[in-house]
Amino acid sequence: PQGSEEAKAFVNAFLKRSMPKMKDEAIQDMLTRKAVVLEHHSKKKIKPQRKKTKGFTAKQRREMRLFEIEPEQQRYALFLPLHELWKQYIRDLCHGLKPDAQPQMVQSKLLKADLHGAIVTVTKSKCPSYVGITGIILQEFKHVFKIITKEDKLKVVPKLNNVFSLEIDGFISYIYGSKFQLRASERSAKKFKLKGTIDL
């Protein structure tokens, strides 16, 4: 067992080591009050920086031909199941497409719906060669539709200056491509305004 003087010396030495910034007078003052707060310098934790996952650029996607459909896959019959899925999706979206359904409601739902798998026909166009093209929409971009026809031909039809008709369960809807130049993801959030007359 240590004597009182040795214990006092140990405590003083310990406090000096623990609180190097404090003077002896301040340490003695704290001891007389019987309240000692030891300093503790904690090391700052360095947060590991998260690496952002970078996607491909548009140029890289084109070079890798990510969105191109191979010629052997360009067959109308292959995409008929997709069309059946699309019809079921629209029926669910429009609550069954009943005969008493409001045409405006169906039209507003179709404007925001995903059209991949829909069968469309070009009914009007400033370019006569586009009129009459009918097929399943395989890809929708901001300015064009990629359509596979019954003749197994992949057609790229611009939205600008074209009117498309779309029929499902007796409801025929018309899409004015000039007012439809948006990506599918952007279109779902857009508010379409009702207009009396629309030019091609």
The geometry reads as elongated
C-alpha Rg, in Å? 36 Å
CATH class of the largest domain: Mainly Beta
Strand segment count: 6
Q: Approximately how much helix is present in the residues?
A: 25-40%
Average pLDDT for all residues: 81
Whole-number tally of structural domains: 2
> Could you give the order of the helices and strands?
HHHHHEEEEEEH
Largest sheet: 6 strands, antiparallel
Low-confidence stretches: none
First and last CA, distance: 103 Å
**Second-tier CATH architecture of the largest domain:** Roll
CATH topology of the largest domain: SH3 type barrels
Tally the helices.
6
Helix-strand makeup class: alpha+beta
Write a structural description.
- The chain is α+β, with helices and mostly antiparallel strands.
- It has 2 domains: 2-32; 71-189, Ribonuclease P/MRP, subunit p29 (SH3 type barrels).
- The protein contains 6 helices and 6 strands; from the N terminus they run αααααββββββα.
- The chain has helices at residues 4-18, 24-32, 58-64, 80-93, 103-112, 184-187; strands spanning 119-125, 134-140, 144-149, 154-158, 162-168, 171-176.
- Strands 4-3-2-1-5-6 form a 6-stranded antiparallel sheet.
- A hairpin with an 8-residue loop joins strand 1 (119-125) and strand 2.
- The longest helix is centred in the N-terminal third of the chain and has 15 residues, at 4-18.
- The model has no long low-confidence stretch (mean pLDDT 81).
